[in-house]
Amino acid sequence: RFPPISGGMRKSVMSRIILHATSLTVPIRSQWRGVLLMGPSGIGKSDLALRALEAGFQLVSDDYSVLWASGDHIFASAPDTIAGRMEVRGIGITPQPRRPLTRVSLCVHCQLSPPERLPEAELTPVLGYDLPTLRLNPREASTVAKLLTRLRLLS
């Protein structure tokens, strides 16, 4: 279990926080499913996002995401200053098509160590709601496929 991501906010108050996370979205069975890619700078969030975009995901926000709770769900969008832009290491800041927001279905904690073979279910508390969580090494070739597999299991 992870420490709550809340900024000291309560469920009943419409609050927004900015989190160091890349947010993506992908249609699964006719519904958009949002993902928060979390982890320290340089771990590979943007590189994983770039590969995910090639696999059919759409960018919501790179590197920082605005999060808020509404109707028993967590939503993510881009801060205005970085909307529609993505850092591609070795190339620079690039314009990217994006979706304006997504309902977050999954948190991914990026780590360089290999994920457990048969992990216990994990939840990440965000603004008073527990989100399903997956730990992945963003540099493994199969990471995008694992991400899609987990999202399909949530549907």
Can you offer a commentary on this structure?
The structure is a single chain. With 155 residues, the protein is mostly beta strands. It is 14% helix and 42% strand. Strands 1, 2, 3, 4, 5, 6, 9, 10 and 11 form a 9-stranded mixed β-sheet that branches. The chain is globular and about 40 Å long. 35% of the residues are buried.
Largest sheet properties: 9 strands, mixed
Low-confidence stretches: 7-13
The end-to-end distance, rounded to whole angstroms, is 22 Å
Q: What series of H and E elements makes up the topology?
A: EEEHEEEEEEEEH
Strand content: 35-45%
Query: What best-fitting shape do the alpha-carbon axes yield?
Result: globular
Number of contiguous helices? 2
Share of residues in helices: 10-25%
Rg result: 14 Å
Q: If you average the pLDDT, what whole number results?
A: 91
Oligomer: single chain
Number of strands: 11
Structural class from helices and strands?
mainly beta
Per-chain topology:
Layout: E1 16-19, E2 21-28, E3 31-38, H1 45-54, E4 58-61, E5 65-70, E6 73-77, E7 85-88, E8 92-95, E9 102-110, E10 122-126, E11 129-136, H2 143-154
Parallel strand pairs: 3-9, 9-11
Antiparallel strand pairs: 1-5, 2-3, 2-4, 5-6, 6-9, 7-8, 10-11
Q: Which properties best describe this structure?
A:
155 residues; mainly beta; two-stranded antiparallel sheet; 2 helices; 11 strands; 14% helix
